[in-house]
What does this fold into?
Amino acid sequence: MKPEYDFSKGERGKFFRPNAELRLPIYLTPDVQTYLAERAAEKGIPLGDMVNTLLKQEIQMIESVK
It folds into this structure.
């Protein structure tokens, strides 16, 4: 990296998008990731779909107890 950068010609907010959808990175422990990846492969679905399905089921259970 340079010791100093010139931002005098920079444009504030040039890349800002008010409706941009951010995706949060979720980090699984290796054992959990391996387990879920194997179950997803058995079902022939992507790992992300498997995780979302399980989380939605968990949310439904939590909400039903309220």
